[in-house]
């Protein structure tokens, strides 16, 4: 799990710039947003969102466990949930929005000793999440095409869905993948074997149709929970807008948060304020973004405390947790 200084510097610069830009543009709204946070939040709605967020993490852990089973990796639910906790924590400290995936793959490999299977399982888990998220956004666009005034939102959903489709086709169809064979000549030779093994492992996973179907179903349920969490946070601020809007806007925000940054910090806030300010006052959109930050970063820091107390995903840690099942 090594990152070059240059990559860290670029991502840190993006995050700091995005935060600074947001605060500068909304400098006359910041006091109002903080006042809303201090006096205008209904904490019962926030508590509901927090409980749903924890439940959602369990659903997503169950999705990963389903994929593990398809790869013959034997880690039970509590062990997988702990692995996801570690991933949430490393999303904060590793310099990318997928830093947690790197950590999950690394510690899964240390637990099971299967490097290719651990890595490809996490990749499949991520692709499943993206695929289900874009399906939800596409379905919501069908209902809201007249309410979405900004064509860039629709273009973002269609474009990213197309990218996920092409990526899935790349792993499913070897004939299609051969079109990109020329790229192997620009990849250092020492990496070619590992990439080839990873490709074949992901390609062979398509035979696990029951695992794929279960993973997609769990992913759809988990993503719906995440979207409703944002809606409940908006309700905690007294915002009453069409909940279907969240099924379009939150997937777009998820796409934006994948930009190079420190775990999505800064770019997520820019995306949230930019999109939601079209349907609510900008100071309320900023307050909603801050509530999302409190929930996401609060949970991730709590996961970091658990990680500090229990340590990495060692065999004895897993055995202790699985004994509780």
Brief summary:
The protein has 325 residues and is mainly α.
Explain how this protein is built.
The protein is 76% helix and 0% strand. With 325 residues, it is mostly helical. The chain has one domain. The protein is globular, with a radius of gyration of 20 Å.
* Beta-strand content bin: under 5%
Helix content: over 70%
Number of DSSP-assigned strands: 0
Number of helices: 14
Overall average pLDDT: 81
Layout of strands and helices, then pairs:
Blueprint: H1 5-25, H2 30-39, H3 43-70, H4 77-93, H5 99-112, H6 115-144, H7 151-172, H8 174-177, H9 189-204, H10 209-236, H11 246-256, H12 267-276, H13 282-310, H14 315-322
Helix pairs in contact: 1-12, 2-13, 3-4, 3-6, 3-10, 4-5, 4-13, 5-6, 6-7, 6-9, 6-10, 6-11, 7-11, 10-11, 11-12, 12-13
Key features?
325 residues, mainly alpha, 76% helix, disordered N terminus, disordered C terminus
């Amino acid at each position: 799990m090594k990152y070059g200084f240059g990559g860290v510097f670029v991502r840190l610069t993006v995050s700091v710039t995005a935060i600074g830009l947001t605060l500068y543009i909304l400098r006359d709204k910041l006091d109002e947003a903080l006042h809303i946070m201090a006096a205008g939040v209904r904490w019962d709605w926030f508590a509901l969102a927090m409980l749903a967020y924890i439940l959602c993490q369990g659903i997503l852990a169950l999705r990963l466990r389903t994929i593990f089973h398809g790869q013959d990796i034997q880690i039970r639910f509590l062990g997988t949930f702990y692995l996801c906790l570690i991933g949430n924590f490393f999303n904060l400290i590793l310099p990318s929005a997928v830093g947690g995936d790197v950590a999950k793959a690394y510690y899964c490999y240390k637990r099971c000793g299967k490097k290719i299977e651990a890595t490809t399982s996490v990749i499949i888990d991520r692709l499943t999440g993206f695929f289900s998220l874009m399906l939800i956004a596409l379905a919501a666009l069908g209902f809201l095409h007249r309410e979405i005034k900004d064509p860039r939102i629709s273009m973002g959903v269609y474009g990213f869905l197309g990218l996920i489709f092409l990526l899935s086709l790349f792993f499913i169809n070897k004939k299609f993948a051969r079109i990109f064979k020329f790229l192997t000549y620009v990849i250092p030779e020492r990496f070619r074997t590992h990439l080839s093994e990873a490709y074949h492992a992901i390609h062979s996973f398509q035979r696990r149709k029951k695992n794929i179907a279960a993973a997609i179903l769990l992913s759809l349920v988990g993503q719906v929970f995440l979207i409703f969490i944002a809606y409940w946070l908006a309700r905690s601020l007294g915002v009453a807008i069409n909940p279907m809007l969240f099924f379009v806007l939150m997937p777009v925000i998820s796409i934006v948060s994948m930009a190079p940054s420190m775990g999505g910090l800064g770019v997520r806030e820019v995306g949230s304020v930019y999109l939601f300010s079209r349907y609510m006052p900008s100071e309320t959109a900023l307050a909603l973004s801050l509530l999302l930050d409190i929930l996401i970063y609060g949970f991730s820091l709590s996961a970091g405390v658990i990680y500090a107390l229990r340590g990495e995903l060692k065999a004895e840690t897993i055995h202790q947790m699985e004994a509780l099942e």
